[in-house]
Amino acid sequence: MSLPIKCFGYMTIIFMSLVVSFTAIAHGVDEGTKQFLTDNEGVALIPFLYIGAKHMVTGYDHLLFLVGVLFFLYRSKDVLIYVSFFTLGHSVTLMLGVWNDIQVNTYLIDAIIGLSIVYKGFDNLGGFKRLLGFQPNTKAAVLIFGLFHGFGLATKLQEFEFGREGLLQNLIAFNIGVELGQLFALTFVLIFLSFWRRYQSYLKFSTVSNTLLMSSGIMLTMFQLYGYFAN
Fold it and tell me: What is the H or E stretch that residue 219 is in?
């Protein structure tokens, strides 16, 4: 096995292992952010934009799902289409969830987000074709799971009792921040995947990579379900 193949194989395993470890603490909100959200009154576009971007960059569950979505997408057009479906889904439920104060249990919605990662890894491994004999509509799946991811984002904001004055503007700023954070993170993911695809090891390690992806989703799901039943 050539040195580049070994290096990319080890990089993938290390990267995915680190992501698995971080998955359990995804969506953490630091004390400074908590204090700001609790004390804020009125329009605060820049802070909400920053919080949204930071939340997506550190939201390992969202990023893991997107890694699964992008793993076998080779054309820029397909990447744009699938990311747009995901963006549409989570933007709708993020805005509507907070604006209409739709309460969703944090543990359960994050467990579903974990299952979305399992779903995408299993899909990438061709599991549905072997199990069901057909391929579910991948665009519809990304859109539907995007709706759940949006509720996951909404629940984090709803944990804090901040004033409704300027809420619409703040929500728009937060959502724009989420998209900027997503764009920032995906840029690095796409660069990494594009570079790795030049080597045969990409397909050789695809089974390992997607199995680790599924494992991280299972860990997140079990962690959240434990939190639900323990509280």
Answer: helix 206-230
Distances (CA, A) of 29 to 13, 35, 56, 67, 156: 28, 10, 11, 23, 8
Q: Are 9 and 205 in contact (CB under 8 A)?
A: yes
Q: What does the block give as tokens for 212?
A: 């680790």
DSSP secondary structure letter of residue 63? H
**Close Cβ partners of 123 (under 8 Å, ≥ 6 residues apart):** 68, 135, 136, 138, 141
Summarised one tens digit per residue, pLDDT across range 101-160 is 888 899 999 999 999 999 999 999 999 988 888 889 999 999 999 999 999 889 888 877
Cβ-proximal residues to 160 (8 Å cutoff; 6+ apart), any chain: 34, 37, 38
Nearest CA-CA partner of 179 in 99, 90, 113 = 90
Cα–Cα distance, 159 to 121 (Å, whole number): 30
**pLDDT tens-digit series, residues 196-214:** 888 888 888 889 999 999 9
pLDDT digits (tens, 9 = 90+) for 170-186: 899 999 999 999 999 99
42: left (phi over 0), alpha (psi -120 to 50) or beta: left
Q: Nearest to residue 177, comparing CAs of 56, 86, 17, 30?
A: 56
CA 183 vs CA 35, 48, 186, 187: distances in Å: 27, 17, 5, 6
Per-residue confidence (pLDDT) for residue 22, from 0 to 100: 47
- pTM for this one? 0.83
Position 85: which residue type?
A: F
Pairwise CA distance, residues 86 & 145, whole Å: 7
